[in-house]
């Protein structure tokens, strides 16, 4: 018996995000997933050390690795389309859940039972879901900043939207990250390593 679940996950690298926009550098779903998982883990550590929000950093980080996995089947639905109306949003959510179930069924039943809650996010608490969503938005914000620095005005509106969305979330962990970490994303390697105590 063959189980194609992981081979399917490997196809994340073929899915391009921001498909309705011109990008100076294409971003794959695989890249976004890795960035989001790293950010989610950091936000959880910030939560534990500074804000007191209860969370499980490792659990949230693993859930982040799977958070967009259904897009392997559905493709990346552009945000303006996905959230254009309540009907479209609800329909897409239903498709995502169906896709998650279809993917998990490609594992042996014992593993399917363990993996499904990570794909759906059902094992996360409400505060953990918020931290994961904030990480997802931060990843998008960082991409928009990267495009803006490259002189690509195509992302100007998306940059403003992501900043507003994060502010509206009222997520203290994201606010901490934006104040203390986000400015470093404009620095080059020499500046980053010098500031971090690395080799001069």
From TrEMBL:
Signal peptide: none annotated. Residues 25-150 form the HD/PDEase domain. The keyword Oxidoreductase does not apply. It comes from the Bacteria. Keywords: Hydrolase. Its EC number is 3.1.3.89. GO terms for molecular function: 5'-deoxynucleotidase activity. Pfam families: YfbR-like. This is 5'-deoxynucleotidase. It comes from Candidatus Faecalibacterium gallistercoris. The lineage of its organism: Bacteria, Bacillati, Bacillota, Clostridia, Eubacteriales.
């Amino acid at each position: 018996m063959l189980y194609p679940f992981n081979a399917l996950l490997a196809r994340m690298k073929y899915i391009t995000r921001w498909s309705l926009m011109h990008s100076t550098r294409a971003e794959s779903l695989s890249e976004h997933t890795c960035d989001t998982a790293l950010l989610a883990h950091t936000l959880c550590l910030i939560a534990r050390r500074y804000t007191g929000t209860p969370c499980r950093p490792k659990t949230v980080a693993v859930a982040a690795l799977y958070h967009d996995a259904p897009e392997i089947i559905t493709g990346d639905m552009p945000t303006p389309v996905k959230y254009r109306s309540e009907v479209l949003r609800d329909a897409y959510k239903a498709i995502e859940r169906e896709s998650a179930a279809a993917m998990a069924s490609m594992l042996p039943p014992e593993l399917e039972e363990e993996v499904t809650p990570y794909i759906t996010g059902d094992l996360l608490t409400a505060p953990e879901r918020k931290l994961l969503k904030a990480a997802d938005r931060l990843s998008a914000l960082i991409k928009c900043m990267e495009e803006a620095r490259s002189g690509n005005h195509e992302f100007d509106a998306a940059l403003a939207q992501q900043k507003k969305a994060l502010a509206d979330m009222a997520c203290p962990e994201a606010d901490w990250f934006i104040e203390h970490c986000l400015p470093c994303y404009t620095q080059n390697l020499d500046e980053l390593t010098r500031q971090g105590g690395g080799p001069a």
